[in-house]
Amino acid sequence: MKLVEKITARKDVHAGWRREIHAHPELAYQEHRTADLVAAKLESFGIPIVRGLGKTGVVGTIKAGNSDRSIGLRADMDALPLAEMNEFAHRSQHQGVMHACGHDGHTAMLLAAAEHLAAHRDFDGIVHFIFQPAEEGEAGAKAMMDDGLFEDFPMEAVYGLHNWPGLEVGKMAMRTGAAMAAMDVFEVKIHGQGGHAALPHLTIDPIVVGAQLVGAWQTVVSRNVKAIDPAVLTVTQFHAGDAWNVVPETVVLRGTVRCFSQSVRAGIEKRMREIAEGLCAAYGCRLEWMYEHRFPPTVNSAAETQVAARAAQAVVGMDDVNTEVEPVTGSEDFGYMLEAKPGCYAFIGNGPGTGGCLLHSPTFDFNDDIIPIGASYWVRLVEQVLAR
Ligand SMILES: [Zn+2]
Ligand SMILES: [Zn+2]
Question: 17 and 105 in contact (C-beta within 8 Å)?
């Protein structure tokens, strides 16, 4: 491994920042303390900042040389509504809120890189450090874009980095094309005709229709989506009825769809709705339909993925970068940024993922040993893309 030595020399300081953030986690759009910390650090490095994009977002910008080429590096700052079960000193001090996805580490890695790049400026161009709110399901990336991120801070490409439990420390991974899935949610209400459970012929039983709908939807992925296109359709909630002897009026089904392309996404939504409408028509029920697109797929562009791979290889070595990692069925709001700009979302090994050290687990903790690796990756990426 070839880490940036001056970053490694400050790894205890950087780990301190990470633990400070870990101890004070904040939920989506409430990252005030975290944004204050980020802003104060950037200013202490001599980096001018702009605050308030996407409510709590922070952007720092540095320039070196004469080139007006520019790139963005993005970290996320938010935590999850989860009660931390770790007992160590830097455990969450905010009841029911926890950095269980390692965004504390993402923030610390990007701060460490910003500190180094501001001090050495061994590149020619402009770097925007993007600290975004609300990655966890609340589309903070989009909120910053809606507030003019790419207009106020023009950039050719944008890069993101997520820690990955299960990937060894010292390894990195990425892929060209769809790296993470699109995420949609749906809520379907089937309205029948309630009545006495002993006199079902006088009712229209929505439970029977709802049950058939769950079954019929299983054909969408298996019969309507091309076999080589990965997709998931999961019904996660089925709510109906309150009594032993009453046929309820209404069934509510909720769930999520994951897939990796906009065309598959559109096809699944259309087919789900056709089946639901057809079944409801057949049984005389009324359908209320809600299908919401949340995050788009996270799609890496080819050239920028090569650039990211080269930077990763310069840090962890040729053999420890997997440039054809499997796509992940989780999703990321960085997909919004990659719809607007070319770029690459890469993964950095957080260690074995044993002992409950998994993303979104109450016993997760970001691995401080990888801060110098991730920060070195950011520095090499900037130095390579914006080479003098
Ligand atoms: Zn997460
Ligand atoms: Zn995350």
Answer: no
CB 301 within 8 A of CB 175: no
Parse the chain into domains and list their residue ranges: 5-180+297-385, 182-295
Distance from Cα 119 to the centre of ligand 1, integer Å:
32
Spatial distance between the Cα atoms of 335 and 331, rounded to a whole number of angstroms: 8
Q: Is residue 363 over pLDDT 90?
A: yes
Q: Given the structure tokens 């054809």, which residue do they identify?
A: 324
Mean pLDDT of the residues in the chain: 97
Q: How far is the CA of 361 from the centre of ligand 1 (A)?
A: 10
Mean pLDDT in residue range 360-384: 98
**Which pLDDT band, with edges at 50, 70 and 90, does 355 fall under?**
confident
Enter the pTM of the model: 0.92
Say if domain 182-295 classifies as CATH 3.30.70.360.
yes
Rounded to the nearest angstrom, the distance between the alpha carbon of 65 and the centre of ligand 2 is 34
CATH number of 5-180+297-385: 3.40.630.10
